[in-house]
Amino acid sequence: MTSNQTDAQISTALSAVAARDAVREIFFVACGGSYAHMLPNQYIVEREAVAIVGHALNAAEFKACAPKRLGKSSIVIACSHSGTTPETVEAVKIARAAGALTISLTHDLGSPLDEASEYTVSYVHSPQTMSPVHSAAVLTRLTFGILEAREGNSKVPALTEALAKLPALVDKIAQDRKTDIAAFAEAHKRAPLIYTMASGANYGVAYSFAICILQEMQWINSAAIHAGEYFHGPFEITDFDVPFIQLIGLGPSRTMDERALAFAKKYSKCMTVLDAQELGLAALPDSVSEYLTPLVFSPFLRIYAEKLGASRGHPLTVRRYMWQMEY
Amino acid sequence: MTSNQTDAQISTALSAVAARDAVREIFFVACGGSYAHMLPNQYIVEREAVAIVGHALNAAEFKACAPKRLGKSSIVIACSHSGTTPETVEAVKIARAAGALTISLTHDLGSPLDEASEYTVSYVHSPQTMSPVHSAAVLTRLTFGILEAREGNSKVPALTEALAKLPALVDKIAQDRKTDIAAFAEAHKRAPLIYTMASGANYGVAYSFAICILQEMQWINSAAIHAGEYFHGPFEITDFDVPFIQLIGLGPSRTMDERALAFAKKYSKCMTVLDAQELGLAALPDSVSEYLTPLVFSPFLRIYAEKLGASRGHPLTVRRYMWQMEY
Lengths: 327, 327
Known about the structure:
Two copies of one chain form a homodimer.
Chain A: H1 3-19, E1 25-30, H2 32-48, E2 53-58, H3 59-65, E3 74-79, H4 86-97, E4 101-105, H5 112-116, E5 119-121, H6 135-151, H7 156-176, H8 178-187, E6 195-198, H9 203-218, E7 224-226, E8 244-248, H10 254-267, E9 271-275, H11 286-312
Parallel strand pairs in A: 1-2, 1-3, 3-4, 4-5, 6-7, 6-8, 8-9
Helix pairs in contact in A: 1-6, 2-6, 2-9, 3-4, 6-7, 7-11, 8-11, 9-11
């Protein structure tokens, strides 16, 4: 698969979006890590849309809810890496039968998800890097593309400019922070639990790291804490020996992150803080930099995860249940 | 405060809803435990509304998002027990300035939240019981009341009938399950971590128990796992000695709960399962029973929490940071 192919697929899907009579709502539907990728897109719609509404939903929950609003003025964006996640395939079938425009992301053209969807976009999979044709970037392009096509949102050029800078930026950060990453892995190799915390566009990255990396791939207990919720319950769990990984974003949610960090670092002696500003992300175009932070944190944290797995002698590929049995 | 006062306040707010030119969206805005109470209401709108959209948002996140859609056709329902949560008060001020209809729940008439809101509903606070004038029930009445006023939803009579049965039902369940509750408290008194799991209308209860009871009031590590997400990451953390509290609901999300339970109980020997069907909730009117399950699980789990706190010598009232300092 080439970058050209992905670009052409996005462009075809967006032409269909433009040709639609009306678009009132985007449902972002997936499971697990793919669902986590949807969360920043719901946030983008929340912040940027004039009238269109965005909802990220777990695919099984989407089926259970069966929103009555689902119909010809809905767009359903689905994602499954293998294209075989049964809940996601079923959700797309339900959506398509209801008349919604269906656009799916999958790594595998020819998969059941590809076949179920009206439009499919394939992408490059390389979790420790980022580019405009990685899945998380493709989703961001689709979201802004829809807002441009339907509401005249003018940020696509800035987004394109910023995305072009990400491959080099992510590689540079990974290179510059090698010592920090190794220190993190050593310090946490016997940790039975690590919390993650973020807000705004980055909450999905914190959620993904908690459920897909720590719980799933490392069997380390975890929970993603929304920085806006921290002071309303979770902060009481903070103690000198309770480790947190906190993401500090850009844009208006940064205030929430900073407030939580100021408290957490006073009482936990095991804070790992990744700050988008310190990582140089504020140099990206202002109008979109906030939304690009998850696209940098995501591969960067994957490198942390690899190193942690190595320190623990527990590779990220190990599973005891997933793919080992029926469930 | 009497039941009559709450009823009259609800009725006044719903008259204002009916008098509105248009209602396109309900934002449910709060923090922590109050935010958790909003989640089943977002689910109700998702399932029941013909055209109205529902969004539950943490109040600080609501402020950061500043949705452009917020305006005269929006309703903002906010909740803060003390009526002093600064983020929630500010969110209501923003919403009201944008022309939205604001309805707030607070225990304290005369509080800043009451003063900031156009309409206020006060409620009875007694966490181990349930009645039509408890906060969670009031929110459900408001949500269905809005759907009735704006879209002709016909479930209010069934809801009223069901809510009237809850006080006796909750008391009976608590009485019947005394032995189970005591056994849970003894078995978990040294647990460093307890996961909660649920889906659909009950996810908010699982979330609330994780962040407000376990993390905040017991300093026990926790995370709420959505049953629909369980197989896409979190299930790999399951092991014989990892405790879960799982809520099994009614309605279409029950399938998700049952699938997760079937797996979890095979590999964890510390499952605590509260099943709405076994608790007799299926006897409530069919059309609304699904939405009433959180109103039973919530006080029932509070009794579990009290007993757990007693077994651990750590009362639910203890805090180390909350109310002890500025943050």
